[in-house]
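In pairs, describe these two lines:
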Amino acid sequence: MKQSTDRKHYSQACEENRAPIEAVLRECFAAPGALLEIGSGTGQHAAYFAPVFKHLRWQPTDLAQNLPSIRAWCDEAAVPNLLEPRALDVGQNDWGMPQVDYVYSANTLHIMPWSAVEACFAGIGRVLRAGGLFGYYGPFNYAGRYTSESNARFDAWLKARDPDSGVRDFEAVDALAQTAGLQLQRDHTMPANNRLVCWRKTRWR
């Protein structure tokens, strides 16, 4: 659950999942480069990971209304490789972003409508350099089935709030990735019935 104090928002989930995510990202995001974070949310991940991954130029992004919280977390982190947060609507045809070596996103696909998920992967295909990696953290269904009762309950809660949202089928998401020129590299089991999936950009669309 997110809490707020003025501009700076807080998510307990971000605090709980950051260490397991860091362990996987150390393997996937090992070489220096530029990273685009899609859907930075509260800004906690950006503020935590940028000081850890000093070899990455970390670009946080989100919808414009979420930038004040992200900026507050970034200002507190005060590290030179954490860039000024930028507004990004994944549904736009032109993201106005330079090409990057890495893309990272956490817990975004299940809160977007499917049309936005499609647009997100198309955009990643445009901005990710050949050989670059996209790392995504969140829940998935496999073969149309929930991986846990908690994910089934979470999916029902999401759909009650917004019928266009919901836990995504991995196979459908991987098909979008392939269309964007991305090839599956690793699918990591994570705590709390989540996954961290890494795709590599292997070809131009």
Remarks:
- Residues 2-201 form a domain with the Rossmann fold fold (CATH 3.40.50.150).
